[in-house]
Specification:
The structure holds two protein chains of two kinds. By secondary structure, chain A is mostly helical. Chain A is built from 15 helices and no strands. In chain A, helix 3 packs antiparallel against helix 11, helix 5 packs antiparallel against helix 11 and helix 12 runs parallel beside helix 15. Chain A is globular, with a radius of gyration of 21 Å. The radius of gyration of chain B is 19 Å and the shape is globular. In chain B, a hairpin with a 2-residue loop joins strand 1 and strand 2. In chain B, the strands form two sheets. Chain B has a six-stranded mixed beta sheet with strand order 6-7-8-3-9-10, sandwiched between helices. In chain B, strands 2-1-4-5 form a four-stranded antiparallel beta sheet, with helices on one face. The chains are: A mainly alpha, B alpha/beta. Chains A and B meet through helix 1, helix 8, helix 9, helix 10 and helix 11 of A and helix 2, helix 3, helix 4 and helix 5 of B.
Chain lengths: 336, 248
């Protein structure tokens, strides 16, 4: 191969594919379904932001966690509590939720990222249980089991009132989602993202090429926590309510399941997973209010058993077969 | 001339077991030094002490005159102390070129950079490709390293090490696991190393050591038992005894 072959390869690998515009198209399509679907669409958009933040940890940095709802909850409570105490401006509220969660992520990261695997899993699990219990006991601040009531979000940009149909909420959540998605795409394709994936592949090797592994993981953890907090703040503002389930283990597990369903480490899995999960949940629960969780469970078991790479893994296998066939034909037979 | 690497009376113990017993070693720029010794002599421990995975109980490690005994491994790398690994140790989901590019980016302190939407800046990509092509990795450069043959992976290891512009290069059995027919490939690569780099080769394969080294240190049971030019080592009675296991 001549000089410049690497540049071409990088261009091919990191190029923007037309299919990547599909999520944006889907966002634009929801209003066509009528006002009935704004609430579901908003919830899905928030989940996608949350799942994207988790993908940065699990898929890109190789950090396993069962406690990511901790940061979602912190962001939600920070934004919500500010609103209850008289500051309901949505954009600065989001910023506050993000900052609180990111700062907590940095502090917690310094402590827990010295460990790995099961220890790390247990520590993150303990963290979310602890935080949930604190939120439960500190009812003077959080409302405890009753949840945080009295959240009132001011009109967006001082002009757009959050309406009953959820039209403004949907537009707001969609705009945030697109910005987060663009930011994440930028991050993981930049040299920074490459170095994070290198740590995921092989932390010992990364240290041997001069990467300050712990510091960089803490940074990624803080960014991811901040984005989770952003998703939490977004939900608090749009639903105008924060409850204990927003900082609970169940939410941590659910978002992990959504990500696994879509496929981790590729951004689009974090989009398809929550969409599939919540649309399935919506359809199944309408059909059968009692047994819907069973069918959702069966669906997830089937995907995990037969397609460990998630839904995108299935797509890969279908398109990959064709691609491999051409690659085999094109590749020169090299022996060194 | 300031030595490139200086080990000053290093001592390491695991519990009651003395694994590094007062080892001193000096490498000047351009050195081609080999460290040999039978299994269990403490070679790998010594590598871990030098790279910072382990901290010695006593003694000092100096890199170009600077004391690095208490420095974290990645900081030593930034000061020019580069190692490769006995068992191939790469970033498997990246191509050969990308493995080298990661090293180049990190060497220049661009690991946190958000500039460049194609993984690496064009200048980094070009440099990585040039380094890899010098190692004759050009034809397979865009293949994921996990799909490469073992010998090719060993060459990627060397390319990554070179990309870090080492002042001191620790090569921990660069030919480990390769059939001797492939040793020539590694030796050619070693011959092509920049002359000013100080190289410490830790190797089991004696013909390879004698072909490469200008000075040899022999370690047995944690202690330096001989040091000198290859010819002198070949004649040394103590070394023969250590290798034949009849020290008692």
């Amino acid at each position: 191969m001549t000089q410049g072959g690497f540049r071409d390869a990088l261009r091919r690998k990191h190029r923007f594919r037309p299919v990547e515009t599909l999520p944006a198209v889907a966002l634009l399509a929801v209003p066509l379904l009528g006002t009935d679907y704004y609430a579901l669409g908003t919830q899905v958009a928030i989940s996608v932001v949350f799942a994207l933040s988790l993908d940065l940890l699990v898929g890109y940095a190789g950090i396993v966690t069962l406690g990511h709802a901790l940061f979602f909850g912190l962001g939600a409570y920070a934004t919500g509590i500010a609103s209850v105490h008289g500051w309901g401006e949505p954009l600065s509220g989001l910023l506050l939720g993000t900052a609180v969660a990111a700062a907590s992520g940095a502090v917690l990261g310094v402590i827990v990222l010295r460990t790995a695997k099961f220890t790390l899993l247990m520590l993150t699990l303990s963290a979310v249980f602890l935080a949930g219990e604190v939120a439960n006991k500190a009812s003077w601040l959080t409302g405890g089991v009753d949840g945080l009531v009295g959240v009132s979000t001011w009109p967006l940009l001082g002009r757009f009132e959050f309406d009953l149909f959820g039209q403004v909420g949907y537009a707001y959540a969609s705009a945030v989602l697109v910005l987060v998605w663009l930011g994440m795409r930028w991050l993981v394709h930049a040299p920074f993202g490459q170095s994070v994936m290198a740590i995921r592949d092989n932390p010992g090797r990364a240290a041997a090429i001069g990467v300050p592994v712990l510091a960089r993981l803490v940074l990624v953890y803080a960014v991811s926590a901040g984005l989770a907090g952003l998703a939490g703040g977004l939900q608090a503002e749009i639903n105008q309510f924060v409850g204990l389930k927003d900082i609970g283990f169940e939410l941590s597990a659910t978002v992990l399941v959504m990500l696994a369903l879509g496929g981790a480490g590729r951004l689009y899995g974090a989009i398809i997973g929550p969409v599939a999960y919540q649309v399935a949940q919506d359809l199944l629960s309408k059909d059968n209010p009692v047994l819907w969780q069973l069918w959702l469970g069966v669906l997830i078991v089937v995907v995990v058993l037969f397609a460990p790479g998630g839904i995108l893994g299935i797509a890969d296998r279908i398109t990959g077969k064709a691609a491999r066939r051409t690659a085999r034909r094109m590749r020169p037979q090299v022996r060194t | 001339m300031t030595p490139a690497l200086e080990l000053d009376h290093l001592v390491m113990r695991f519990g009651g077991l003395l694994v590094t017993n007062d080892v001193s070693l000096t490498l000047h720029p351009g050195a081609r030094h080999a460290l040999i010794g039978p299994n269990g002599a403490g070679k790998t421990t010594l590598v871990n002490l030098v790279t910072g995975r382990l901290r010695p109980r006593a003694g000092a490690i100096r890199l170009a005159g600077q004391d690095v005994t208490r420095l974290a491994p990645h900081r030593r790398t930034r000061l020019g102390l580069v190692r490769n690994f006995q068992v191939t140790n790469l970033f498997p989901s990246f191509s050969a070129f990308e493995n080298v590019a990661l090293a180049v980016a990190e060497r220049d302190g661009n690991g946190l950079s958000l500039r460049g939407r194609r993984g690496f800046a064009p200048a980094v990509a070009d440099e990585a490709e040039a380094i890899a092509c010098d190692m004759r990795l050009g034809p397979i450069g865009t293949t994921l390293v996990r799909d490469l043959a073992y010998g090719q992976q060993r060459l990627v290891e060397l390319a990554v090490a070179l990309a870090l512009r080492p002042r001191v290069l620790l090569l921990d059995e660069p030919a480990a696991g390769l059939p001797s027919a492939d040793h020539a490939m590694i030796l050619d690569a070693l011959d092509a190393l920049p002359a000013e780099v100080a190289v410490l080769l830790i190797e089991h394969d004696i013909p390879l050591v004698f072909r490469f080294a200008r000075e040899i240190t022999v370690l047995a049971e944690g202690t330096v038992i001989a040091r000198g030019a290859p010819d002198a080592i070949r004649q040394d009675a103590g070394v023969r005894a250590a290798y034949l296991g009849s020290r008692a």
